[in-house]
Amino acid sequence: MADVQDVLVLFQTTPGLDAQVVAWSRYEASKGPGIKDLVEEDEPPYRNAMAAMRDGWQVIQMSEMKHRPPGDAAYEDGPLPYQTVLSRFNPMVNDQETE
Amino acid sequence: MSEHLLSAQQMAQFVGSGYLKFEDMVPRDLCAACLEEMHHNMGYLAVGTPFESTWPKGTALGDAFRLPQVKGLIHSLVGPDPLYDHHAAHLVKGGVMKGPDMHQDSVIDFRENYFDIQLSLFPADTPDEMGGTFLIPGTQFRNVRTSELTMYQHMRGKIWATCTAGTMYVWNTRVWHGARSNHTDTDRYMYKMRLNPTQPQVGLFDMSDLDNPEVGAALSQNHGWEGNEHRYELMRRVQLWRFVSDQPTYDIGERFLRRREYNPAAA
Prior knowledge:
Chain A is mainly beta. Chain A has 1 helix and 4 strands. Chain A has one helix at residues 49-53, and strands at residues 4-12, 23-28, 58-61, 82-90. In chain A, strands 2-1-4-3 form a 4-stranded antiparallel β-sheet. The longest helix of chain A has 5 residues, at 49-53. The N and C termini of chain B lie far apart (44 Å). Chain B has helices at 8-17, 28-38, 51-54, 60-64, 68-78, 213-220, 230-244, 258-261; strands spanning 19-22, 49-50, 83-92, 117-122, 134-135, 154-155, 159-160, 167-172, 177-178, 188-196. In chain B, the strands form 2 sheets. A 6-stranded antiparallel β-sheet of chain B has the order 1-8-4-10-3-2. A 3-stranded antiparallel β-sheet of chain B has the order 7-5-9, with no helix packed on it. The interface between A and B is medium-sized, with 28 and 30 residues. Strand 2 of chain A pairs antiparallel with strand 6 (154-155) of chain B, so a sheet runs across the interface.
């Protein structure tokens, strides 16, 4: 059976690949098509994207700097501003279409 | 009433972190009666009407939300005569698992110098494995659209309700939050009540300790997720603190708001 793509998203407050991770998400398709029970994780799997790269993850998207408009709009607070998307192929753990 | 008002330090904690936790807020016997009523929870009452006249009397839940310590808490944040917004008995049945659930309730809400509160009563002991509601402290100033936040599965600073019966959380309705899996065979309830202010939320708490140095510390708290955003979060917090504490020139640390306000050319 072919390996399946897993995706790891690291969220940051600065755009570099060496930036601290402040939030993270796993889309591990090798384990199933959804997340039934989110298990708490106190710490991210890697301190930054570069640490993940050293563990076999490939960067498939990194963030661009943001253009900040003048005036109060520059202070807008919304989602976390930056993210790095990483990919790694892993053996299928469960080929059932269950979540 | 005054003995149940929030202190300035507590209010600063609310402004900085978006929530406060109070153990033993509702006696256990009253909690048990509340829990029984929750099994028969009805839908919303009249949204936007005075809480006092709308909220039922002569019931356990009616009594619980009128306890002096609860009224003091409400008074401190939204004043003595709030409006009923809505309530709900949130249930996670025993054995029900939850995937990513982070969301923000209060969407498309850009009112300046304004916040609604949500009171969350846990009527039964809620151990970790029962999966109490989680919050991301300090996120109340960040605007998102409801459940797009599920993209953040894990986030530094996350806390969750692990508490004894009668514990009440009060939180700014904009704090990012969600439900967790219930790994026990016992149903878990969290009873929420949302209230709106009817007056400017200025000086409603006990301001006798405004000079407490812990106020600045509470406003400056770093919850772990802010990173490079911390100073912008701090500016938001100071703006709200200026309003609720009636100190229009208050600032802190490096006085970041001065960077926007000091300009001789504009005088």
